[in-house]
Amino acid sequence: MRLSQFFLPTLKETPSEAQIASHRLMLRAGMVRQLTAGIYSWLPLGHRVLKKIEQIVREEQDKIGFNELLMPTIQPAELWQESGRYDDYGLEMLRITDRHDRKMLFGPTNEEAITDIFRKDVRSYKQLPQLLYHIQWKFRDEIRPRFGVMRGREFYMKDAYSFDIDYESARHTYNKIFLAYCRTFTRLGVKAIPMVADTGPIGGDLSHEFIILADTGESEVFCDKKWLDKDLTGKGVDLNDRTGLENWVQGTLEDYAATEEMHDASNEAVTALGDDLVTTRGIEVGHIFHFGTKYSEPMGATVLGPDGAEVPVQMGSYGIGVSRLVGALIEASHDENGIIWPESVAPYKVGLINLRTGDDECDAACEDAYAKLTNAGIEVLYDDRDIRAGGKFADMDLIGLPWQIVIGPKGLKNGVVELKNRKSGEKTEVTFEAALNQLSA
Fold first, then answer.
1. pLDDT tens profile 365-398
2. Which of 2, 151, 286, 341 is placed for a possible disulfide with 346 were both Cys, Cβ 3.0 to 4.6 Å?
3. pLDDT at residue 289 above 90?
4. How far is CA 388 from the centre of its chain?
5. How far is CA 295 from CA 68, 174, 317, in A?
């Protein structure tokens, strides 16, 4: 993509309304613009990151056998009245009335809708498990939306739901999703620590939050420092081996980690840690629940069991805040010059900078480099704008692409380009072919 043809409205000044790094940088880098309180438009650069995160999340759900579907954003109130949550949910639920005076709502979550789908079409235990997910916009009417996409009112979320015949099967599904989440966040280039959590309004008796450590996190968290270097990829774990998977999950969780609500300073495991206890702040990016029959019983989601008796199914739900992750990744990875994207979610892998647009030799070298990078399958954003070099450097650092190739008159005389790693700041002068080989590897 040529930057001269790309909508990238960067800002030099920090918007006064932005209080945290991710909000400031997303506005300055032209990733989002606020439409109204807590509601944002995603501009092309932000949209590319959002879609890359979404795709990684999708792939990891697919790998463990979940099926993707798409449920509506608007839901009828009667479904929530069946589950008993319509009145309990409070003012965060945006309630509306249609022209026929029917009560509707903008979905803050989808337990009721998915249970309704299940109960209409699944009759026998032989049809279980059913593992379903969707990625959809949701709305919660936060009283004080703030911190940009980190605490907005409208947000993009992956939520998955499982239906199993008994607790043991449901627990196995829970463990599979636990591992899938660990792998998802690893692929996103960030460490998200699973912590025992309160189930809140979703309900249930088993729940873990996945927390990214960041100084600007919303709440205090506590963990053994072993978590900082722990491998969470679960290499070699067989998803179909219930005992092996359970042992891996329990082994992973044996080191202390707790949110502020669940932390117990007097716990022996905590006091024994001494200086190895890490106290910092964290950002919740995922939350998984097993809630048994909380929704299936009141809503009649039952199947005929092996003995012919009708039984309510065991359910779980599993969320990842896709749009929130964009902000969380920035909170975890930025510097004074801008964003530093992990390669897996970067809007482009390489930023190509023409130091002297309009110079025939520079233009020709950049066009040739742009073509070769593109033909090699490398996503490249070519800054071909006729502006000062300083502005190009500043914008490229601000938007945080992992690599920069700088081509100018001086380097061309010596047969080299400058290759910069955005994360380390390291700059090397190499031939373009050497840079291409390195980036293609």
1. 999 999 999 999 999 999 999 999 999 999 999 9
2. 341
3. yes
4. 35
5. 21, 17, 11
